[in-house]
Design brief:
Length: 241
């Protein structure tokens, strides 16, 4: 019983854990397969697999234990989900640090970035190594969010030239870009030879198509026949492209 108390600090969760142990000993948890020796003596729940379970929040423990008890989650999957929740919590702490949500914590992060501060968007960062600090992928992701938040609703442009290459950088809604809007911010604009887009994870195939049509229309207005488009994306977006 001392081991169980160490796993759960809430009384209700402790009672649930006792029930899960009894179910496991009876071979009654979802997907549990009994070995030959288990018919001679009751199988023992492998407490060593609960190291990550101990670290998650009590409300998360309550939910996971309840799912095991109602037969919708196996003990093995409960341990895997606990590991994922532990990793997500670390990613969330890094996210709050990088987006300056230290005082308001995760609630502030969700309020400021409702589309990005969620499991669907952050789970991909749980597989990265944090041994040397916050990985570059997560740091760059958060930098883009903070920059977009800062200039939200504004059109910001800059002209650059290097090694004979000339271009314009425009901060605006990519999917609503038009030739007139570009000419407004980029005097002397005569079309696009190369368009580079850092694709949002939320874009659909239809939205990508809209962008490609827009680029073609812009070059058509400038009487430029040939152009190239480079889309920077993650492996998750390859299907849409």
């Amino acid at each position: 019983m001392k081991v169980l108390y160490g796993l759960c600090t809430m009384e209700e969760n402790f009672e649930q854990m006792v029930e899960v142990v009894e179910m496991y000993e009876d071979g009654a948890t979802l997907g549990q397969k009994l070995k030959g020796s288990d018919f001679l003596s009751k199988p023992e729940l492998p407490f060593s697999r609960l190291s990550d379970f101990i670290m998650i929040k009590e409300d998360e423990k309550h939910s996971l234990l309840g799912s095991v008890l109602d037969g919708t989650l196996s003990f093995t999957d409960m341990c895997k989900e606990a590991t994922m929740l532990k990793k997500l919590e670390h990613v969330q702490r890094c996210f709050c640090q990088l987006t300056h949500c230290i005082d308001g914590g995760w609630d502030e992060a969700v309020r400021r970035f409702p589309k990005e501060a969620n499991r669907d968007q952050l789970e991909r960062f749980t597989g990265l190594s944090y041994s040397q600090g916050i990985p570059e992928e997560l740091a760059n992701y958060c930098k883009r969010l903070v920059l977009f938040e800062k200039y939200k609703g504004e059109n910001v442009s800059a002209k650059f030239s290097r090694d004979g290459i000339h271009g314009h950088a425009i901060h605006t809604d990519t999917l609503n870009i038009t030739c007139n809007k570009i000419k407004e911010h980029c005097p002397g604009f005569s079309g696009v030879d190369l368009t580079m887009v850092d694709m949002s994870d939320e874009w659909s195939a239809e939205e990508i198509s809209r962008l490609l049509v827009a680029v073609k229309a812009i070059n058509h207005d400038c009487q430029k026949k040939n152009h190239n488009v480079a889309i920077i994306c993650t492996a998750w977006n390859m299907g849409e492209i």
